[in-house]
Structure formats: structure tokens, C-alpha cells
Amino acid sequence: MEKSLPLHLRHFHSLTIIINRSHAILHSIAIAFLIYYRVSFLLQETRTRTVPTLPWLLIFASELLLSFAWLLAQAYRWRPVSRSVFPERLPSDDKLPAIDVFICTADPDKEPTVEVMNTVISAMALDYPPEKLHVYFSDDAGSAVTLSCMKEAWNFARSWLPFCKRYDTKTRCPELYFSGSQDDHGDFQRSEFKVEWQKIEDKYGVFKERVRRAKEGAAISNRGDHPSLIQVIQDHNTNEELQEDQVRMPLLVYVAREKGPSHHHNFKAGALNVLLRVSAIMSNSPYILVLDCDMYCNDPTSARQAMCCHFDPQISSSLAFVQFPQTFRNISNDDIYDSQIRFIFKINWFGLDGLRGPVLSGTNFYIKREALFGSFSKKEGINLMELRRSFGQSNEFIKTLGQDYNHTLLNDGESSTMLLEEAKVLASCSYENQTTWGTKVGFMYFCVIEDYFTGYTLHCKGWKSVYLYPPRAQFMGTSTTNFNDISIQWTRWASGLVHVAMSRFCPLIYGPRRMSLLQSMGYAQVAFLPLLSSLSLWGFALIPQLCLFNGIPLFPEVSDPIFCIYLFIFVSSLLKYLYEILASGGEIRTWKNEWRIWMINSVTSYSYGSLDAILNKLGITKASFLPTNKVTDDEQVKRYEMGIFDFQAATMILAPLVTIILVNIAAIVGGVVRVMVLDNGDHWQKLFGQMFLSFYVLITNYAVIEGMMIRKDKASIPTSVTLLSAVFSVIIFSLGSAILC
Fold this sequence. Notes:
about 750 residues; eight-stranded mixed sheet
């Protein structure tokens, strides 16, 4: 490593910083005028008020909540940075640290086995010394079929890895490589390459067929009740064959932790903590790569790029993890559901990287093992009983915490058998009883979003993180591309986030004492987003409309100078977001789609997730976890690629959307009729703001209107949902008019 040259550089976005801060100042002044306008009305004597107090208070509350959400989001805009790395400056391979790769799967019916095995193979094919690479696969279903497919993946990898190394392929996920979606097929003019390419493609076809046959002949297993099983996937071929291949294979270990109906398994965090313990006694690598089961390694150099940050002497001592973005190969040009969550990975995480680093994002991160073990890791003089109270009774595991621990190599013989038996104990249901796993050490159990809370805890302890966004996507996954599954996914995330927001770990209370105010605001924006968005948008979707229907003005007249303040806030918000979209490589349609899906999520998934968190807090419901469905339907995929909304979703998701649309249609019709019948010049000016708001809601959500009234295909909104929503609309108008007016 050349000491005179840095391993990585940080670049400040100076122009963006100036624009962001200037906009923040102007927008804050406008919000201050808005607040003054609302408060001055409330300070008037009751008999002089021309508008009922309750609707005024409700719309004011909605404005305050949305303004507060905007204020928290300024943490991302304060100091965005990007980074570049120089892997060629790393030390030689023999000086690189070992890496353990953790891959988790939960349900073979929702996570296609061929895709999962491609993730395993691509992880084994990383451009890293194979003797320092160890892949651990967690199968929470304990499926014999998955274990059988793992062995098939190993056999194929014995041919695939030498091929990748010989021809220096960049795309090392075989499914992507042979699909033709990547221009990485070497020199087809060479006859030798043509022959080798055809051979390996034929072997991949055989591998997929064997996996499919194994899946079709699978017996149903009890996924919630099975013993622990640890198996090292290997063969016993001769050393001569290994020498002929001229490549060593990374360690591949199958782990199925014990699950029982009477034990809480703590979802993905529980599976990751089992892998932490099992890997500690087998390889004990100082760094860990965590991958979702559908997230392929798209660039073999990701480990070396991450090490450029972990090895940087300026940040390495306090660096907990290096986060890469999530990118997806099945995103359409329109991306009508914002399946790629681009505002997080292309805007927000750059902003947090300018503070103390981005949020841990579930997958695609290289984390330091020491960071997960807290103050106990590699520390001398700690009492053995104290270690057992924290980490459990395994002496073998406790040895791994020492500075001089050397892991036992897995070879045939008695030592390997004993090690595997110890690993089964570490993967048992009862091992964590009376320990601090999930509360002080390992991945955190506090809520279903273990990634967010674990990263939050690490940052509170003083650790830092960095965000790398290289030109070539390092990891490539498959995103959810239908409305029903997207809604379920966001509901789960919203529930976990609001659970943190309402707890003693609230980032606005717990955070500022342990991290900077701006970073606390960043974490708070993520945690409070579902709650603030749902409450404020329900207010904007109903209160002005009910008042419009009854002829009650809630916004300033068009001729009033304060109307310009509202106009400025509205226009500047839209234009600022449009600037961020365009600056991050998006298009105008991206802006339109993201704005619409935020509005839709706010009144559906965010609302249900927030309600679930509140009920969970009150002890009425328990936290639950549904794996995201990765199985695709051809018709749904076709509609998604055409930019057509698929409304084949639960009634509880569709009914709020349709109800809001019907309320806004009725309000704008009622408002227009009122202006035309009673037009003396005043009504138009007084009600223009509310009429425009209703029109904006309708035009932005035209896809919902189309699904209700125009489309007749099976993915349109069912008539029964429209009728039910009409009943809800009548009830809202009746009760709302009686209470508010």
C-alpha cells in the first residue's frame, strides 16, 4: 500500500450545498409567515371569527406536521458528500483481512430457489482470496430442498469460479451473465472462449434443471418447528482435480437454526445473530458482508472497495460499516411504485454520509464484527462470568473474543465433528436465554426493522459509517413490482419505524445526547416519516374538502398577500424536489411517480403501519414479519413495465384511496356549483385555494380514477370497493359537516 496516496477520497457537493441551504432559509421564512397567519386568527376574539375554530385547528395541525417533516429532512441536505475509492492501492492479498458473507432466506415459496442459489454462487465468486472468503447461508425454513440445492450450487461453482477467474468476468452471477443483459461475454472471436462459454452455459442449464426438479419433488416441511442443522458443503474429490482447476473454493456453510413454536425467533435479526455465533467458531473473520437472498454480487470488486474505507487510517478505528446502495434489475422506465426507493439511495444517504454516515440498510453492507460485540470485543481483563452473561455459555465462542484466537480448520475428523456439534448448540432456540444477544450485542431485536435500529445503536455508541455509490452497481437484486406486495412491505417498515419513534429510543430524545443534532434529525425523519405523512395527508385530503363543500374558506383569498406565501411554499417544494430528481439522474416522470406514490403510501401503508405500531405499543397486537414476495406474475410484470397500476390488492388498501378520490370529486363539484350559484366575486377568491387543492389531488392520482371509472380489466378497482368507498364518503360528509361546520 502506497502510504503517500489515499485509499479513498470524500467529495463535497458545494453547489448542491449552497442551493439546499439557500432554499432552507427561504422556505423557513415562508413557513414562519404561514404560522403567523394561522396563529393570528386564533388570537382573534371568538365572535369576530368568520371560520369555525375546529377545522382551522385541524388544517393548521396538518401544516405543522408536514413542516416538521420537512425540517427533519433538511439534515440530508445540509452537507451531502460522495466518495471514490482506489482498490489498486490496497496491500497484497496475503495482508487482506478475511470476510464472512451472511445470506438469509426465510420462505422458499416466496423466494425463488434458483435466484437464491445465484446469490450464493455470486458471493463465492467475489474477487477476493478464496481462503479468506467464507459464505454462510441461513435457511429459516429448515428445508431439505434448499440444502440439496446448495449442494448443486457448490458443484456448479466448481466450474463457474475457474471460468470467471480465467476470463476475468465482471458479472459473476450466472443468471445475469447468461441472460445477455450484461455486456461481459469476453472475446467471442476466440474459438477457445466459445467452447468454454458453451460448456459452462450447458452446465448452468443442467444446474437450473436439477434445482427445479428438487423443488417440484419437495415435501412440505414444518418451517416453524425443526432442529438446528449445520453442514459444511464440500466434496471429497482428489487434490489433483483442484490443481487442475487452479482455483480454491471458499468455505460454504448451510445453517438452519432451531425453531420451535414456544420460542420467539426474532425474525431476520435472530438469524443473523446465529450466523454471527456459528461463523465465529468456524472462521471468525473480522469483517462481514450481509446480503438478502435475492441480492446478487454484480461486481466482484465490492469487497476490495469496502476495504479501501475499512483500511483508511483516518477513519478505520471508528468505522462500523460500509453501505452500498440497493439496485434492481427489474425496474421499468416508469417505476410507477418507486420500487427502487431511489430517494433514499440517490439523495438521502449522500446527505447522511456528510454527517456520521448512512443508516444500515438491510443488505449490501460490509460491517466490522467488533462493532457488533460492543465493549466486550477484543478487550482484555473482562470477567468470564460477565462474558457468559452477555454471550452465553459456549466456551468455544467466548474464546473467539480473545486477541489470539485461531479458528479450527474444518477437515474430516474428530475436531470437525466436535465443532459442528458446538455450532448446533449455538444455533439452538434456548442459547440466547438470559443473555444480552439482541439487546446489547449482535443485531438488535427491538423491532422488525433490525437494520435501522442496529445502525442507530451503533451510531449512538460513537461508530461511523460511509456510503459508497460506484459507477457500476456492486449488487443487483429483484424488487417488488406490484401494488399489493409494495403496500405490505411498506406497512411492515412503517410499523417498525413508528415503533422506534414512540419508544424511549426516539431519535429526537435519545439521539441528541449521543450523536450530532443533524444526524439525530436524519434518523428522526426516517422514524417519523410514516406517522407525520399519514396524519398530515389525511388532514389535507379531507378537511379542506369538507369545508369547501360547505362553503367555509380555510386558505387566504387570492388577493390577500399571504396567499403568495402559500403559493411559494407549494411551488418551491415541488421545484426543489424536481431539482433533486433531475440532479440525481431522474426524469420529470420520476418526479411525478414518486410524488404520487408518497401520497398513496401516506393514506394506506403508512397509516396502517402507524396504527399497528400504536396497537403493539398498547399490547393489543404483537409484532409480525411477512417476507417480501419475490415470485413474479407475468401479467403483473407486463402491466408494471407498461406503467399501468395493478389494483389487485386488499380492500383495506384500496378503500381509503377510492374514498379520498370520491370525497375530492364531490368537494370540487360542490365548490364549483356554490361559486356559480352564489358568485358575487368573493366566493371564488375565498375558495380558490381549496378548489385547487382538490383538483391537484385528483390530477396527481388520476391512475386511481382510471382504475375506478375507465378501466375494465381484472387489475382495475372492483366495483364492490367503489360502492363501499361511496358509503364511507357519505358517512364522512355527514359526520364531517355536522362536527366541523
